[in-house]
Amino acid sequence: MVKWFDKAREIWAEGGHIKNENLLNFAEDFFDFVMAVHENSNEGKSQVTKTFLHRAGQLTADAGVHISIQQEAVRKLNQILDESPHELKRQVLSSAEILSVMKLLGKRIMEGGDYDLQVALTEALCRMTTEKQRHELADGWFSVEFVAKAFKRIKDSEFETDCRKFLNLINGMQGDRRRVYSYPCLEVFLDKHELFMPADDKLEEFWIDFNLGSQSITFYISTADGEEENQWDTVCIPKDEVEYYTVKEEKGQKVLTVMLKQLLNSGGREGNKIQMYFSAALDIEEAVRHVYGEPENKVSVTPESLSIQLYTGFQSAIKCEN
């Protein structure tokens, strides 16, 4: 399997940053096979954990492969960490190879490019260490002192909210070099359906993430139906699924409207138009332009404008005849 992985990594590296569905499907199939071995027996768990844990970590931190491949690798990395026996993980995670991988993951978090990827990388570091170990190792992962201190404040029991604070800090501190813009929004609609942020007493804002690396906008929504609490889903709007977008200022708010090429179904709600309302003070235009490119000029044709066009054309035809 190691030879297969090394060859696969060469193929993924050759694909570079160009999005290729075949390479992504190949990555998904390959890691599904690895996880099938991992879940088959205790021997399989031992073999995969000892052999692939650090390799998956290296691939996750490899900025030379497409970000979708990194995301698939880190998902499986976290799954291996979650499902492997404690004693086995203790043996593997103390190796020099894993300590080296941890530094690579810390570096990749700083480079960002996609908020979900950053969350998964942060989760991997937290799964690899106890809170006490993080206090000892974080200074080696992050060269900036206050970034290391911010990482040390992440608690396992409050991971989602603490991780949001940490990532907003490191993305915001990079100014014009940042690869993820995160802005709080006031309301989000999918057609006429209002979407709500996940129910969390400690989550104060409805965050929208503009991801330059993956060329997508992502956010988390509640899918609770009244019977189940704390149910949530991720809405991802990649550039290649966008027909066009507009940003307009209305009643002291900025409204980002994204028209999709196909219907989006999320939590039983369906539509092809997403509208996000932000404070007028936020520079939404810059963020969305970095993700989707310059907006295209779309001309809406109403019955009134159509009749004017027909009338003007009729007048022009008469003048030509005369």
Description:
The termini are far apart. Helices cover 52% and strands 21% of the residues. The protein contains 12 helices and 9 strands. Residues 298-322 have low confidence and may be disordered. Helix 8 (131-141) packs antiparallel against helix 9 (145-152). The protein has helices spanning 2-15, 21-40, 42-60, 67-83, 86-93, 96-111, 115-128, 131-141, 145-152, 159-172, 284-292, 303-321, and strands spanning 180-185, 187-190, 193-195, 206-211, 216-222, 232-238, 242-250, 253-266, 269-279. The protein has 322 residues and is an alpha+beta fold. The strands form 2 sheets. It has a 5-stranded antiparallel sheet with strand order 3-2-9-8-7, with helices on one face. Belongs to the SYCP2 family. Keywords: Chromosome, Nucleus.
Keywords:
disordered C terminus; alpha+beta; 9 strands; 21% strand; 322 residues; globular; 4-stranded antiparallel beta sheet; 12 helices; 5-stranded antiparallel beta sheet
How many helix segments? 12
Percent helix, as a range, is: 40-55%
As a whole number of angstroms, the C-alpha radius of gyration is 24 Å
Structural class: alpha+beta
* Strand neighbour order, sheet with most strands: 3-2-9-8-7
Distance between the termini: 83 Å
Brief sketch in words of this structure:
The chain is built from 12 helices and 9 strands. It has helices spanning 2-15, 21-40, 42-60, 67-83, 86-93, 96-111, 115-128, 131-141, 145-152, 159-172, 284-292, 303-321, and strands at residues 180-185, 187-190, 193-195, 206-211, 216-222, 232-238, 242-250, 253-266, 269-279.
